[in-house]
Design a protein that fits this description.
globular; 4-stranded antiparallel β-sheet; alpha/beta; 2 domains; about 40% helix; 13 strands; Aspartate Aminotransferase, domain 1; about 15% strand; single chain; Aspartate Aminotransferase, domain 2; about 350 residues
């Protein structure tokens, strides 16, 4: 059997998305909330799950959970919401719905799945470099690319992953106005940013706002959602697989989101620790640290030492993310998730020892 004759050339040319094994390590590589639930909350959650009808298919529309999400995010009734098995599925649905010759536009560096899924589907993918000094949008370059390529979808992560910064709001609004296709504002890290375009949904008929509960503290549930005009969301529902949000996720997410005060407290703790880690990194010789509105921090190491420092930190029992192999603006860069105080201390101590090593 000749594999090359079975699969599309776009798939054959791709590399699989790799997830690092964190067994036995302090895990600070995946932008997860490090805090679990108090025992009393866990007990109430298990009670809510007790009567889950596992012998029945889940609610195909996840109606109760959708209503909870709309209420907590103050999404007006005139907009619809689609739920996905993580934001990844929603990105995939959007791209699957496009014509085969459609263009997709994103800033670079950005969330890897925009590129991964676009190339997998054989779409015309364009990545526009961010400004090197600030990681902000290069507005003239973005507007030129919109004019030239007429993208069907533009993805803008707000805050951006992996840089952590919020793009200029004025630049984003100019991009939305210039685009004839859809503009998706990916607000995966909104809980840590105090900034959102949800209130702007009514101002632009091509605007979609996407979020996830993963960074909030529910990564294991794999739940994302997107809000926008009903006629757009309707098209995505046509290709969404039935029962894509399982019953346990629907019940668990609804329960968790109804305990908003707990996640607000954890978010405040993470933001406070983010400031501590940022200031400690900023005090280290040879390190350039970039401001973050997310739950992670990007920093640049001395030239040509990122991979060595990453390996040294891992050897000391702490796993972060090595972005340097991606090259470009991320050369010499590492990214660390903000963890618990003791986890952050372990990381900072390991980094200090790695920098001191000859």
């Amino acid at each position: 059997m000749k594999i090359s004759s079975l699969f599309r050339k776009e798939v054959l040319a791709m590399s699989a998305y790799k997830v690092a094994d964190a067994t036995g390590l302090v895990k600070l590589d995946a932008m997860e909330n490090p805090y679990s639930w108090p025992e009393d909350i866990k007990a109430k959650w298990l009670e809510a799950l007790k009567d889950c009808p596992l012998n029945r298919y889940p609610d195909p529309e996840a109606g109760h959970l959708t209503a909870t999400i709309k209420r907590l995010n103050q999404i007006p009734d005139q907009f619809d919401v689609l739920l996905g098995n993580g934001s990844d599925e929603i990105i995939q649905l959007l791209l699957m719905a496009l014509p085969s010759n459609a263009s997709v536009l994103t800033p670079d560096p950005g969330f890897v799945m925009y590129k991964q899924l676009s190339l997998c589907l054989g779409l015309d993918y364009h990545a526009i470099p961010l400004l090197a000094d600030s990681f902000d949008l290069d507005l003239p370059a973005m507007l030129d690319a919109i004019e030239k390529h007429q993208p069907s979808v533009i993805f803008l992560a707000y805050p951006n992953n992996p840089t952590g910064n919020l793009f200029s709001e004025a630049s984003i609004r100019k991009i939305i106005k210039a685009a004839k296709g859809l503009v998706v504002i990916d607000e995966a890290y909104a809980p840590f940013a105090d900034a959102s375009f949800i209130d702007s949904l009514g101002q632009y008929d091509n605007l979609l706002v996407m979020r996830t509960v993963s960074k909030l503290g529910l990564a294991g549930l794999r739940l994302g959602y997107i809000a926008g005009m009903p006629d757009i969301i309707e098209q995505l529902h046509k290709i969404r697989l039935p029962y894509n949000i399982n019953s346990l996720t629907q019940i668990s997410a609804d329960f968790a989101l109804s305990n908003k005060a707990l996640f607000d407290q954890q978010t405040q703790q993470i933001c406070a620790e983010r400031s501590v880690v940022f200031n400690r990194l900023n005090a280290l010789d040879g390190i350039t640290v970039y401001p973050s509105a997310a739950n992670f921090i990007l920093f640049r190491t001395p030239e040509n030492r990122a991979t060595e420092i990453f390996a040294s930190i891992k050897q000391q029992g702490v796993l972060i993310k090595n972005l340097s192999p991606q090259g470009g603006l991320l050369a010499d860069c590492l990214r660390v998730t903000v963890g618990k105080p003791e986890e952050n201390e372990a990381f900072l101590a390991a980094l200090s020892r790695s920098l001191a090593a000859s």
